[in-house]
Amino acid sequence: MQKVLQIALNHLFLVKRLNMKKALIIGGGIAGCAAAHQLSLQGGWDITLVEKGENVGAGNYTHLYGGHPHTFGPRHFLTQNEDVYSFLNSYLPLRNCDHIFQTYVEKDSQFYDYPIHKDDIPRMPESQQIQLELGGKTLEDVANAKNLEEYWKASVGETLYDKFINEYSKKMWQIEDNTMLDDFSWSPKGVALKEGVRKAWDTAISCYPYALDGYNSYFKIATEGSKVLLKTTITEFDIINKEVVFNDKKHKFDVIINTISPDVLFDECYGALPYVGRDVHMFVLPIEFAFPDNTYFLYYAGKEKFTRLVEYKRFTHYKSPHTLIGMEIPSGNGKHYPLPFKSEYERANKYFDLLPENVFSIGRAGSYEYRVDIDDCIEQAMSVAKKLA
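Above: the chain sequence. Below: its structure as tokens.
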């Protein structure tokens, strides 16, 4: 009798599965995991998530180095969307991590707060010249700026631009001239010249998971209702017909949610979308903490090869007599930062225009937008799920 009941249950499960709509999620980073989670919560989906790496979570996945937990570069959760914050916090308890950015200016032999803080100007060698330049600025000049260089010079003057922005931006984006950056709305971290409170983000929720393994438990929750294929590469795309080939077999789906660069889906038929990658070098120091209290990042605005250092314990609260530092160096390795050029946005839009009904492209790479962060990925996944409901 028990055997007959089990056969009947297996049959019902098979029938139910056959009646489910089939969804493919390409890429298992935060956007892919969030999409899988939203479809699972909705129910009625047979979900396959394909990830070429060894784990889901991509750069947000927590690894260990000498026992120290770390992600690929800092990955704090930053949002102005309280609904998204509440959603993630309900699955992954988050604690506040308000902090200060500091920038080292080698020619001054000084650290200053970033965003540039008005109270730091008096201790700068060129303080009088800076005040003169700030006095001549107008909102019209800022509004008329056509590129990053014009924006910053119009906002804070040439001296502060040269001190904080010029060399940093060129090494960050691996370019020779900041006038190439004709989308710059992402550049000021909230404000070009800050007054009052010194914490980096006073207009957004800034937090990090309590758990030492960071976001890892959320990735497990988000994908437990999906078939996750790790170390798997899609070798052929027929996006128009929602068919792909992986593991030497063709697979057809009702819905595709893409989170990788959209040019890959169409064999770069309009040309490759450019990205800046980065190398992250880890080193442990024989001291409990290296940075001042409430300072999580140190930026380097000159001709140093690296852009910033991060002290991971400031985020993770890992207990150790030693501390782990990450050094980030822009490179050609990986597709981490879509280039903020309007011409490349136009190229990306050509690929988006090719997407048929029920094929979506989300996430930083999938949207081809540098400004897309963890909270945006979750919000995009929620939006897609609503459209499919």
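The two ends are 39 Å apart (CA to CA).
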